[in-house]
Write a structure and sequence with these properties.
The complex is a heterotrimer. By secondary structure, chain A is of the alpha/beta class. Helix content of chain A is 38%, strand content 22%. Chain A is elongated, with a radius of gyration of 25 Å. Chain B has a domain at 65-198: Up-down Bundle (Four Helix Bundle (Hemerythrin (Met), subunit A)), CATH 1.20.120. Helix content of chain B is 69%, strand content 0%. Chain B is built from five helices and no strands. Chain B starts with 23 loop residues before the first helix and ends with a helix. Chain C is mainly alpha-helical. Chain C has one domain (39-509): Cytochrome c oxidase-like, subunit I domain (Cytochrome C Oxidase, Chain A). Chain C has 15 helices and no strands. Chain C has helices spanning 30-58, 69-105, 113-121, 123-136, 150-153, 156-186, 199-230, 244-278, 285-299, 314-342, 351-374, 376-382, 386-416, 422-449, 463-493. Classes of the chains: A alpha/beta, B mainly alpha, C mainly alpha. Chains in contact: A-C, B-C.
Chain lengths: 271, 199, 547
């Protein structure tokens, strides 16, 4: 009987968790190739987490209610010091869950491009990697898109300082306080800080990378949705840390080209 | 169930801390492990800096090996002489013990002098570059330990005098503590020598 | 059986001021030191709480309008530092450790009473120094993590005082750790085996091992940082060729284990409280011991999960992801065992029990978000956001602080000989639980949707949720009042507790309340089964005022 109750309860918990994961809006708009992959991971973690949390909470509340000491009741509870098979069971279950989550998130990480060797992104500095180390690198998008010829990615240099982000487009030699990128094109951001540690975060891209002084980092992403998204500094960088924000403006390719050619020092027909 | 097992009572309550065995050496070992972790942190930082941070082009980071090798020999010898002094303390030969303690302290001071000589002949100062800073931080922190150890040895030396000294075969803890500490500092130096000078 | 041998004369070291004055003296009595830690820690908790209140007031509006931005950063730095180093670490380790461990091992005091007093007396000056730095030239502004180069470029005076203060507190912590290891391993009463010790001893043994191994690394790191600030060396200063990421590695090598230094003792305390109030043996003693040691070992090799966005190489990210996720296994075992301890018990729904169960619920949520945060791809979005703030407050407040309250309700009768008012205690639990969850649960959403941590201003779309969170904070602040009233009132007028109001079996209850200086009149009792509930004739539960 109790087994059936447990089964029914866990099935209901599972359904509830899945429903919430798909229907409750907990994340901002997804606007990069990275974001749907992230959202998939989030949903899985959310479902597992909800089941565990609600299950444990229900167990505690049930125990407190069902085994409470009634008025006038004396005596001890049952003499039960342990149960080897139960303990093995709840060592094994979390181990399996954790193993699954670990493998799954490895897969997600790989699909985000986290396992790619950085030197392949980092065409210019390949040879002198000792002199200039580039670290970071998650978020080059799913393997399928990033297998496109690397030279097709749009290189942009980001310099962070207290309290601003400055973007420099080597092609066209544009300097801008806002990041303009075209939809559907991989962007390769090379980031370095002038003073303290900052972080480049676009919630809609589900990406964050520290911008570190003395150690350039690289971040690749491919926007998928046009629009205007915030760039937020996520590492405490001084009094105006909260105000250190900018925008990433994702345009259709034609609009981007217009912006680019209006600002470029030298006109380039197409990127 | 709970059982209250009475033990034979000593007729008079003694000072409580002396009811149990002497744990001071145990405590010291725990402390030395902690101290060793500080050094481990420094070594890890040094090795990471070395692996990751390229030196500035004009930086000098070649170290002469002569003085540090001498230092290593001085410290190793002093560990040996300290041990020797301990043997004499055990056999109640205070005069010989004091003699060897004095030699140990002398070796410690010689180490410090030699370290100073090295400092003053080095072509770089504390803030010249990352390597220089790390070098001075590591050797300086170790030198601080040697200085403390040398002071301890001198105190022990004074306290092993006959007849009024307080460190005897019956009250050996201060001696043992200082000796253990000295061996520890010595061991750290060997690691430091290998990592900093030989690698 | 009672042995009526009066201590004929106090040993010379116990010739201390009598009465309340001893709490302000260099007392060597572990019980006095424990209560000194507890009260001192609580005072700092109130200060840290006021700072938290200031942060929540600032965040009720999206603009930085309540205090100057520099002050805001000082406030958040002090809040973090005080709550960690002056409240939770000293209280879960120092206060309850000092009070209980000698009882549990059957000793009359700690192994090194003088070192113990030194360890305590390092805390008030360090804390006062930290707080006065605010009035001198401004406190440190770089967060409790003090990441360089920010900590090098912000005003030096406050940062240096912060470093000195943390060094003193670290020293205090190391001394305490050495003392606990020696006491637990070497001072056990003859006939008492390690596997017969109450679980809190194991928790403190594990914690102390972490303290001794990791705190010195923080000390060394902060010494290097202070060189950077004072002597202009370049260890962590990139403009002088230094490396900022090395600081983060060294810092987190301590500061991740610090999380276990804050929660493992709490685990131990809960393992003492749950069996007493559910009248059942602690479930799975052996697995509990192994899971503590598993957490200790794993806890030392997971630090870089705080640095997933710091430009760490992929292999490092993966290793630390997996190591971190696996900490969930031993932790999970403990939680299942606690629920199994409740199962089939005769549970008294008193304040101690409620706070412990509140701890279980809160910590499970914090643990789940912790496993999620350990996943690199998940972390790159929410790292350094309010999601993380919510996560670690669920661990340290929902976890450790709930346990501290639970422990105070449980051991107050032993400390003072009087019972706390249970109804007021339950009320305290309910509003703390509601306030806490109202304050921190919405912050998960804030972080996921784009609000970074440590900001004084934010996107206006987050205002409503921030205000909800601030209301929660207000409720939490108010929840302290019934607690303080309860302590004050019960201390003077509470009903007499007797020696063992809970009919508990652990050794501290087998003596008078409050215990004599020597802990026991006569020989220490040999308690071989500290959790032997349900093994004998039903016992009469003492009547407390509400029954």
């Amino acid at each position: 009987m109790s087994a059936i109750v447990t089964l029914v309860t866990s099935v209901m918990l599972g359904i509830g968790g899945v429903w919430a994961a798909y229907n409750v809006n907990m994340l901002p708009v997804s606007a990069s190739t990275n974001a749907p992959v992230y959202d998939e991971l989030f949903r899985v973690l959310f479902i597992i987490g909800s089941i565990l949390f609600i299950g444990m909470t229900a167990l505690v509340i049930y125990s407190l209610f069902h085994f409470r000491r009634r008025p006038g009741e004396t005596g001890d509870g049952i003499d039960l010091e342990g149960n080897i098979s139960l303990e093995i069971f709840w060592t094994a279950v979390p181990a399996i869950v954790v193993l699954f989550v670990g493998l799954y998130s490895y897969d997600i990480y790989d699909r985000m491009g986290g396992m790619q060797s950085l030197s392949s992104h980092n065409h210019e500095n390949h040879m002198e990697s000792n002199a200039e180390r580039l670290w970071g690198g998650i978020g080059s998008g799913p393997i399928e898109t990033s297998s496109i010829d690397q030279s097709s990615s749009l290189p942009i240099e980001l310099t962070a300082m207290q309290f601003a982000f400055i973007f420099h487009y080597p092609k066209g030699d544009i300097i801008s306080g806002e990041l303009h990128v075209p939809v559907g094109k991989e962007v390769s951001l090379k980031m370095e800080s002038k003073d303290v540690i900052h972080a480049f975060w676009v919630p809609q891209f589900r990406l964050k990378q520290d911008v570190i002084p003395g150690q350039p980092t690289i971040l690749n992403f491919t926007p998928t949705k046009s629009g205007n998204f915030p760039i937020i500094c996520a590492e405490l960088c001084g009094p105006y840390h909260g105000g250190m924000r900018s925008n990433v403006i994702v345009d259709e390719q034609e609009d981007f080209d217009i912006w680019f050619n209006q600002n470029a020092k030298e006109t380039i027909s197409s990127l | 169930m709970t059982s209250i097992a009475p033990k034979e009572q000593s007729s008079e309550k003694e000072v409580q801390t002396e009811e149990h065995e002497d744990l001071r050496l145990f405590g010291l070992i725990a402390f030395l492990i902690a101290d060793g972790m500080t050094f481990a942190g420094f070594f890890a930082a040094y090795l990471t800096f070395k692996a990751v941070n390229p030196l500035m082009p004009d930086a000098i980071y070649e170290l002469e090996l002569a003085l540090p090798t001498l230092n290593t020999i001085l410290l190793l010898a002093s560990s040996f002489t300290f041990h020797r002094a301990g043997k004499f303390l055990e056999s109640n030969k205070a005069k010989d013990c004091q003699k060897w303690l004095l030699i140990t302290g002398g070796l410690g001071v010689a180490f410090l002098i030699s370290q100073m000589v090295e400092y003053f002949t080095l072509p770089f100062g504390l803030t010249d570059n990352l390597f220089a800073s790390t070098f001075y931080a590591l050797t300086g922190f170790h030198g601080l330990h040697v200085t403390l150890g040398s002071i301890m040895i001198m105190i022990i030396w004074w306290q092993t005098r006959v007849p009024s000294g307080r460190v005897t075969n019956q009250n050996k803890f201060p001696f043992e503590a200082a000796e253990l500490y000295w061996h520890f500092v010595d061991g750290i130096w060997v690691v430091l020598f290998i990592i900093l000078y030989l690698l | 059986m009672t042995i009526s041998i009066q201590p004929t004369n106090n040993p010379p070291e116990k010739l201390q001021p009598k009465g309340w004055l001893k709490y302000f003296s260099f007392s060597l009595d572990h019980k006095v030191i424990g209560l000194q830690y507890l009260v001192c820690g609580f005072l700092f908790y109130l200060i840290g709480g006021v700072l938290a209140g200031a942060i929540r007031i600032e965040l009720t509006s999206p603009l930085s309008d309540f205090m100057p931005r520099e002050v805001y950063n000082q406030v958040l730095t002090l809040h973090g530092t005080i709550m960690i180093f002056l409240w939770i670490v000293p209280v879960v380790n120092g206060a309850f450790g000092n009070y209980l461990i000698p009882f549990y091992v059957g000793a009359r005091d700690m192994a090194f009473p003088r070192l113990n007093a030194v360890a305590f007396w390092l805390i008030p000056p360090a804390g006062l120094m930290l707080i006065t730095s605010y009035f001198i030239n401004g406190a440190a502004q770089s967060g409790w993590t003090a990441y360089p180069p920010l900590s090098i470029t912000t005003p030096a005076a406050g940062q240096i005082i912060w470093i000195l203060s943390v060094l003193l507190l670290g020293g205090s912590s190391i001394f305490g750790g050495i003392n606990f290891i020696a006491t637990i391993l070497k001072l056990r009463r003859p006939g008492l085996k390690l596997m017969q010790l109450p679980m809190y001893c194991w928790a403190m043994l594990g914690t102390s091992i972490l303290v001794v191994l990791s705190t010195p690394v923080l000390a060394g790191t902060l010494i290097l940082l202070s060189f950077d600030i004072v002597a202009h060396t370049g260890f962590f200063n990139p403009s002088l060729g230094g490396n900022v990421v090395v600081y983060q590695h060294l810092f987190w090598f301590y500061s991740h284990p610090a999380v276990y230094i804050m929660v493992l003792p709490a685990f131990g305390l809960v393992s003492e409280i749950l069996p007493v109030h559910s009248r059942k043996p602690l479930f799975g003693y052996t697995t509990m011991v192994f899971s503590i040691m598993g957490i200790v070992v794993l806890g030392l090799v997971v630090w870089a999960h705080h640095m997933f966005t710091s430009g760490t190489p992929p292999w490092m990210r993966l290793f630390f992801t997996i190591a971190t996720a696996f900490i969930a296994v031993p932790t999970g075992i403990k939680f299942f065992n606690w629920v199994a301890t409740l199962w089939g018990g005769k549970i008294s729904l008193n304040a101690a029990m409620l706070f412990s169960c509140g701890f279980i619920v809160n910590f499970v949520l914090g643990g789940i978000t912790g496993v999620a945060l350990a996943q690199v791809p998940f972390d790159v979005h929410v790292h350094d956001t309010y999601f993380v703030v919510a996560h670690f407050h669920y661990i340290v407040y929902g976890g450790s602080v709930f346990v501290i309250f639970s422990s105070i309700y449980h051991w107050f009768p032993k400390f003072t000989g009087r019972m706390l008012n249970e109804n007021l205690g339950r009320f305290h639990f309910i509003i703390t639980f509601i306030g806490f969850n109202l304050c921190f649960a919405p912050q998960h959403w804030l972080g996921l949707n784009g609000m970074p941590r440590r900001v004084a201003e934010y996107d206006p779309q987050f205002q409503l949720v921030n205000q909800i969170s601030s209301v929660g904070a207000l409720i939490m602040a108010l929840s302290t009042l019934p607690f303080l009233w309860n302590i004050f009132q019960s201390f003077f007028y509470g009903i007499k507790a007797g020696n063992n109001p809970w009919h508990a079996l652990t050794p501290e209850w087998l003596t008078t309340s409050p215990p004599p200086v020597e802990n026991w009149e006569g020989e220490a009792p040999l308690v071989l089964e500290p959790y032997g509930y349900g093994k004998k004739e039903p016992i009469e539960i003492i009547k407390t005022e509400e029954e």
